[in-house]
From TrEMBL:
<dbReference type="GO" id="GO:0004422">
    <property type="term" value="F:hypoxanthine phosphoribosyltransferase activity"/>
</dbReference>
<dbReference type="InterPro" id="IPR005904">
    <property type="entry name" value="Hxn_phspho_trans"/>
</dbReference>
<comment type="pathway">
    <text>Purine metabolism; IMP biosynthesis via salvage pathway; IMP from hypoxanthine: step 1/1.</text>
</comment>
<keyword id="KW-0460">Magnesium</keyword>
<comment type="similarity">
    <text>Belongs to the purine/pyrimidine phosphoribosyltransferase family.</text>
</comment>
<keyword id="KW-0328">Glycosyltransferase</keyword>
<dbReference type="GO" id="GO:0032264">
    <property type="term" value="P:IMP salvage"/>
</dbReference>
<dbReference type="GO" id="GO:0032263">
    <property type="term" value="P:GMP salvage"/>
</dbReference>
<comment type="pathway">
    <text>Purine metabolism; GMP biosynthesis via salvage pathway; GMP from guanine: step 1/1.</text>
</comment>
<dbReference type="GO" id="GO:0006166">
    <property type="term" value="P:purine ribonucleoside salvage"/>
</dbReference>
<keyword id="KW-0660">Purine salvage</keyword>
<comment type="function">
    <text>Purine salvage pathway enzyme that catalyzes the transfer of the ribosyl-5-phosphate group from 5-phospho-alpha-D-ribose 1-diphosphate (PRPP) to the N9 position of the 6-oxopurines hypoxanthine and guanine to form the corresponding ribonucleotides IMP (inosine 5'-monophosphate) and GMP (guanosine 5'-monophosphate), with the release of PPi.</text>
</comment>
<keyword id="KW-0547">Nucleotide-binding</keyword>
<dbReference type="InterPro" id="IPR029057">
    <property type="entry name" value="PRTase-like"/>
</dbReference>
<dbReference type="InterPro" id="IPR000836">
    <property type="entry name" value="PRTase_dom"/>
</dbReference>
<feature type="domain" description="Phosphoribosyltransferase">
    <location>
        <begin position="15"/>
        <end position="162"/>
    </location>
</feature>
<keyword id="KW-0808">Transferase</keyword>
Length: 180
């Protein structure tokens, strides 16, 4: 059975995603010219976004990875942010950019922002491919946003439901009967 059969509608095509990556890469390159920021990819969902985004930044950047979860296999955030894998490098004195696939409730990024402030990062910014403000319960705002999303459960281009659909080349709305 094809994963495409579980998709109700395509919200963002591969071409729209590529255009957003190019625009975001140009903005970051301009803002961080000569600064060598640390891009922190929030696993697993943001990995595709990170790999495409950094190829659009013609400036020196470093990358590292964190694996955090607040969904724990469900479709809504539990509010409990759990660090599964921490960074391998120090953020003290560094310009940090969180690379996130989607900002939904804001719980994860609020917790990470507080953590990195306590670790004495020089600055902390957020780049998110998708912004979905309908469920926001934290005062978290991305500094760089690729695409704005309606209040729908989306998958594809790294985003998943129970670790499936990440490899779709587009972002689509998952049919409710799949997850209800």
């Amino acid at each position: 059975m094809s994963m495409n059969q579980d998709i109700q509608e395509v919200l963002f095509t591969p071409e729209e995603i590529a255009a957003a990556n190019q625009r975001l890469g140009q903005q970051i390159a301009h803002d961080y010219q000569g600064k060598n920021p640390l891009l922190v990819c929030v696993l697993k969902g943001a990995i595709l976004f990170l790999t495409d985004l950094i190829r659009q930044i013609p400036e020196s950047v470093e990358i590292d990875f964190m694996d955090v979860s607040s969904y724990h296999g469900g479709t809504t955030s539990s509010g409990d942010v759990k660090i599964i894998k921490d960074l391998d490098v120090s953020v003290a004195g560094r310009d940090v950019i969180f690379v996130e696939d989607i900002i939904d409730t804001g719980n994860t990024l609020k917790a990470l922002g507080d953590l990195f402030a306590s670790r004495k990062a020089k600055s902390v910014k957020i780049v998110s491919l998708v912004d979905k403000p309908a469920h926001r319960n934290q005062s978290v705002k991305a500094d760089y946003v690729g695409l704005s999303c309606p209040d729908k459960f989306i998958v594809g281009y790294g985003m998943d439901y129970q670790d499936r659909y990440r490899n779709l080349p587009y972002i689509g709305v998952l049919k409710p009967e799949v997850y209800l």
